[in-house]
Amino acid sequence: MPMKFYHKVESIQFDDLMMILKVDNRTYTFQLKEISQKLLDANSKERKAFKIICSGYGINWPLIDEDLSIDGLIRTYNQLNS
User: Fold this and answer.
1) pTM of structure
2) Which residues make Cβ contacts (< 8 Å) with residue 51, sequence separation at least 6?
3) Exposure of 63 by Cβ count < 10 A (0-12 exposed, 13-18 middle, 19+ buried)?
4) Which residue, 4, 12, 68, 72, is the most exposed by fewest CB within 10 angstroms?
5) How confident is the model at residue 38 (pLDDT cuts 50, 70, 90)?
6) β-strand 18-23 against 9-14: which pairing, if any?
7) CA–CA dist 22, 34 (Å, integer)
8) What is the pLDDT of residue 4?
9) Burial of 12 by CB count in 10 Å (0-12 exposed, 13-18 middle, 19+ buried)?
10) Is 49 helix (H, G, I), strand (E, B) or coil?
11) Can you give the pLDDT at residue 26?
């Protein structure tokens, strides 16, 4: 049985205070202070060292021990922008 893909994560980019997530052909922009203090405090190397986990279920940053679910990020985006 083929593995189920939850989300197709196309890119993750950062500037000083923001994360830009492109997933499922949509772009979401987050202020880091709204989603993760660890990412806000992380340096560029730590932010870039991520991996997609569980076929697009989430994102892991092993250098800072942070995990975020894609569904949770999308929910947060919708709540903040509704």
Assistant:
1) 0.88
2) 59, 60, 62
3) middle
4) 4
5) very high
6) antiparallel
7) 18
8) 65
9) middle
10) coil
11) 97
